[in-house]
Design brief:
Strands 1-2 form a two-stranded antiparallel ribbon. With 56 residues, the chain is of the alpha+beta class. The longest helix is centred in the middle third of the chain and has 5 residues. A hairpin with a 6-residue loop joins strand 1 and strand 2. The chain is built from 2 helices and 2 strands. It starts with 9 loop residues before the first strand and ends in a 15-residue tail after the last helix.
Length: 56
């Protein structure tokens, strides 16, 4: 995942279900991934606080 982008919607390749962040999380990586998104790992503001163009 690029340091300057986040994924706010993800379609499961297996079943096609759309995943969205859980309440309080900024992206699907923070909600469902094994590790948080790069901005949180680097102790920077979460990607949800950035301009919408930086989110996928």
């Amino acid at each position: 995942m690029p340091d300057d982008a986040c994924v706010i919607r993800h379609a499961c390749a297996f079943c096609g279900a759309e995943m969205r962040p859980r309440p309080g999380d900024c992206c699907v990586f923070c909600s469902y991934g094994d590790v948080a998104c790069p901005p949180k790992q680097q102790a920077k503001p979460c990607c949800a606080t950035r301009a919408p163009s930086s989110c996928v």
